[in-house]
Amino acid sequence: MLGTGGPTYDRFVRDRNFCAPTEYTKAAYAPTRTDPRCFIGYTCFEPGRSDWFGDY
Q: I need a surface site. Which of 4, 20, 25, 54 has the fewest CB within 10 A?
């Protein structure tokens, strides 16, 4: 199960079209039975001052 605990869950999107205009996408991975780092989609995040273009 993918979640943050309690009744709150992580949000995964297909591409940046599902994020707010000021947000960017970051690749998300989860362990599976056959792959410890399986790509499951993207998460939206608001870059901060310390984020350099392309570092996310």
A: 54
Q: Measured on CA atoms in the order 14, 16, 17, 18, is the torsion positive or negative?
A: positive
Chain centre to alpha carbon of residue 13:
7
Kindly report, residue by residue over 16-49, the tens digit of the pLDDT: 999 999 999 999 999 999 999 999 999 999 988 7
Instruction: Identify the pLDDT of residue 55.
Output: 56
- Long-range pairs, 14-17, Cβ under 8 A, ≥24: 14/41, 14/42, 15/42, 16/42, 16/44
Place of tokens 């979640």: 3
